[in-house]
Design a protein that fits this description.
Structural class: alpha/beta
Shape: elongated
Strand content: 25-35%
Number of helices: 6
Order of helices and strands: EHEHEEHEEHEHH
CATH class: Alpha Beta
Number of domains: 1
Helix content: 25-40%
CATH architecture: Alpha-Beta Complex
Number of strands: 7
Length: 191
């Protein structure tokens, strides 16, 4: 069976490459708008499943991986900042506060039409930092395309006082531990 990552994310692609399996990437092109009163967990899970299903119509014999991440601060979703100014502003709002990341994973078998899905929760406590420290971070790493505006796998780790969750890959964007278990249920054993 073909394995397809339903994503255009370079970060998710790099994470999946760690498993040393052959796969291709296809952008799912879905509407990622939240629904009225949709919880962050429900949003993340729905989007992962929709991404996998969006590819399934074109790939009748594949294992399709969908994933999404929602960052949540004080009842509000944090988005990819997009530019330096918004990145600094967003990280300033996070200082000394807990931000929760909900990272979903969905694996759809288009031959059997079965879906496995799961949501990983990661809690982060940001350190109180000065504006100058945040500007230095943003100028060094420029994580404009990352939910939360940082790269945990790089210098972004310096922004935190504490992080907790089951799979550190989930904070980067793809829960590999859960994905390995899902793939095993489909007969693909890693390593």
């Amino acid at each position: 069976m073909k394995i397809i990552l339903a994503s255009s994310s370079a970060y998710r692609k790099a994470l999946l490459e760690r498993l040393l399996i052959k796969f291709s990437c296809i952008a799912p092109n879905i509407d990622e708008s939240p629904r009225d009163n949709e919880s962050p967990q429900s949003l993340a899970l729905r989007l992962a499943e929709q991404k996998a299903l969006a590819i399934a119509g074109h790939e009748p014999n594949a294992l399709i991986i969908g994933s999404d991440q929602v960052a949540w601060l004080n009842g509000e979703q944090l988005h990819k900042p997009g530019d330096r100014h918004r990145n600094i502003e967003q990280l300033m709002r996070c200082q000394g506060k807990e931000v929760t990341f909900y990272t979903s994973i969905a694996l759809y078998n288009s031959a059997t039409k079965t879906m496995q899905s799961h949501i990983e929760t990661y809690r982060t406590l940001f350190r109180p930092l000065s504006t100058n420290q945040i500007e230095r971070y943003v100028d060094h790493e420029q994580a404009f395309d990352c939910a939360g505006g940082f790269k945990m796998e790089g210098l972004g780790i310096s922004l935190f006082e504490h992080i907790s969750g089951e799979d550190p890959n989930a904070l980067i964007g793809l829960p590999l531990i859960r994905l390995i278990s899902m793939l095993e249920k489909e007969g693909l054993h890693i390593p």
